[in-house]
Structures are given as structure tokens and as C-alpha cells.
Amino acid sequence: MNKLRHEFEENGFVIVDILAENEILEFRKVMDTMLSESKKTDDTKSHKSSLQHLGDEISDFGSENRQYYFHLLTKSGTEQIHHAFLNEKVMHVVEQLIGQNLIINNASILASNPGVSYNLGWHRDIIQIPENEICDRLFSKERFHNSVQINLPLVQEDSLEVVPRSHNRPNTPEENIAFRGSKHYAPTDAQMPGAKKVSLKAGQAVFYNNNIIHRGFCEDSSLPRRTLHMGYHSANTPPTWHFYLLNAELLTPTYLDSLSPSMRKMMRNYLKCREQFPEMKETWKENFPADLVAPLDYQA
Ligand SMILES: O=C(O)CCC(=O)C(=O)O
Fold it and tell me: pTM value?
């Protein structure tokens, strides 16, 4: 097993240097055309969290005192930054962690302007699973979790917090106390034992098994948050529920035609995989296959 994968499997996350200084600057330039730091709001209300699983509109950025979460691949007008989600270094690391033939399942930006506080609440990324269907089997050491989530900031940050090694074991009794009966989000004032801030320099990425207990948290930072947030699975084995995060209905032939050839290929692979595994609600069932019955005709 390679060293990175060993560390990823042990701790549930690894940090890797990805972007050179000139690449950071180029991405910042593109992002600054989409998200303005100068947009000030009179809003002083504290907002619990952004519409994480629905996604915000880029044109709304900065109008409320909160962090924004933009889903990109299914939104025209964001093509100028799509190449970030085909970054060779990122994809090479993910291949080392879970295998080849990557399919993208999340291509987003996490963004807030200076002065904004946010607290997403501690969770594992199992929000799609009804609470009464969440069971310890999903977090066992034997189960291969075919999903890697990545935060790649263009400005240094320590907004992501994790409980190292919690990705492949059930909650401890102390963690259950912190979750106060919820299997989705803990209350935002919860104290999570063993929590660790993930400090990232601009251009450094954290790759994490998103079964890990984690949250996004920031108190009144003097810096903006400008973080590329993405996820992949390997078509070598069946996907997890994260695969369904992209709204496939928006991937119309006209939209696909508007993409660069490499992004179009990525999205076609996505759609093929969707045909192969049409039902998200099967993915957490005990009888969901661990090996592909018929391998996907993946286009590299
Ligand atoms: O970095 C963050 O803000 C946390 C993101 C997160 O919790 C998630 O995408 O599930």
C-alpha cells in the first residue's frame, strides 16, 4: 500500500501541496471575477449555515452575513473555473487513495468575505441517509468507502475541523453525547472530543474520507474564504450516496456541448455511471454490491 493511502486509511485524511504560487494567483484572479470581496452587507444576523446541499446563486454572494456554497458543474457561467476540477495533481492523489477511473461527484466553492462567522455543525456526510437507516456497518474498517472529498483553499484557512480516525468506526459514547441524539448534525454549540483544526496554506489540499466526523467553523476571520471543494469516486467499484450530489437533470446535451472536451468526457462518464446505478437509496443497503457486476465503459 502506498504511503499516502496508508495515512489516509489510518487517520481519515491527508494533506498534500497541490498548487504553485502562480497557479494560486491565476485561480484567485478567476475567482475574483465571480466573487467580490468588496460587496458589503448590513446584515448582522447570524445564519446557521448556507444551503449546503442545494447550493447558492453566485449573484447572491455577499448579500447575507454567512458562508456561501456554490455548486459549479451544473451551472452555466462558471466554466472559467472548471479546469480546477480536472487538476492532474489532485486526481493523481485521489487515484492513489481509492483507485483509477475517477468520476466527479462534487465541484463547488466555499466562500465567505472577511468578518463572517459560520458553524456548519459536526456531522459525517450521511445527510442523504434517513436517520433510521444509518447503521454502524457504514463506518466499519472492512467497508471500502468509495469517496474522497477535498478542500483546496486559495487563501490560507483552518475552517475545516475533523475528529482524526473517526472515519471507519462508529461514534464513541462521548461523541454520541455531543450529537445529542442526532445521527445527522450535532447542535452548533456541541463540544466534540478529539477535534482537530485542519490548517491549510493557500494551494495545499486536504483529502478526506467524508465519513469522518467534521464541520466547517470560523469565528470572524480577517481573511476571505475562497476554497475549491470537490469530490470523486472510482468507477472501479460502486459509488456511495455522494455520487448523487450533482443534479444530473441539468446535464442536458446542450449543456454538455458547452463544456470543454475533457470536462464533457468527465460528465459523460458521470451520466454512464448514473445509468448503471440509478438509485441512490440502494447505496447504503447491506446487499449493495461491493464489486462491479459489469465494469463501466469508462472513457479516459
Ligand atoms: O470545510 C467546510 O466548511 C466543511 C465542509 C463540509 O462539512 C462538507 O462539505 O460536508
Answer: 0.94
